[in-house]
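Deliverable D5.2: sample structural annotation.
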Amino acid sequence: MRAPLLEARGLRKHFPLRGGVLQRTQAWVRAVDDVSFEVAPGETLGIVGESGCGKSTLARLLLRLIEPDAGVVRFDGEDVLAASPTRMKRLRRDMQLVFQDPYASLNPRLTIEDTVAFSLLVHGTPRAEAEERARALLGRVGLDPRLHGRRYAHELSGGQRQRVNIARALVLDPKLLVLDEPVSALDKSVQAQVLNLLRDLKAERALTYVLISHDLNVIEYVSDRVLVMYLGEVVETGTAEALSQSPKHPYTQALFASAPSMDPDRRMDRLPITGDPPNAINPPSGCRFRTRCPFVMPRCGEMTPPRVPVSATHEVACYLYEAAPAPVA
């Protein structure tokens, strides 16, 4: 068993809602609640869930772009949250984030070559060397530096911008790449190109990925393990093959059932899930999925279900899989 490269334990982040004349805190948005997982070196962990379930907040907590209210993040055995600003700057060479919006995350005043080289300059690399490495990496992600290097972000397509973001993240030779919806803004043909590029780069550079997406096809294609989130909590985790073939949690089952199919014989007779997610300001007691779950039991509203192992690599937070489950209401 290899030691995990990235480890999160009990991560929690609640955002205050302020109002009134004195701008006092009136409520809290519970974005991430008690999230724990591990990522082994060379592994791709996919994080999937509906919009608003806390995926992007979790990505920023892992890289300490926002401070958590509670919990522990360890990278390569080191406590990230206890690191000094100087040490954190060094750690961020090995932990990089590819943002969701490929246009908003690029500086419109910098050329593409300068954008990729900027991180190297911040870390003390001479300009000539930084520009040379930036041009080499642009060529590796499929952008001719002679043609695109002196262009600005608004002169590129969405797929080209995302390739620039990937090059910018890789220029420091990181060990971990956190990808927040890296292909959600792209059309299907360009998505496939970017995903294949990510797979090739992972093999070449021995990278570890944390890939966030709401697209199950993307998650299945690139992930080794999958973590399913609902309203700030982890409801199921396991290998991509196990979750696609035999999802256990009712929410995971609904996600896979709602995925569109190219087979005309697989028609959807009824909606796999109904209703909207509850408000994160005042989530339901106990299991947060109980207000939409077809198998709800009285005890689901009393206490949050623990994560129960259903196999050596598969866990689910649901009372249906206890040793002696209660009868369904």
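Annotation notes: The mean pLDDT is 89. Residues 167 and 183 are 15 Å apart (CA to CA).
The annotation will be released with the project's public dataset once the embargo ends.
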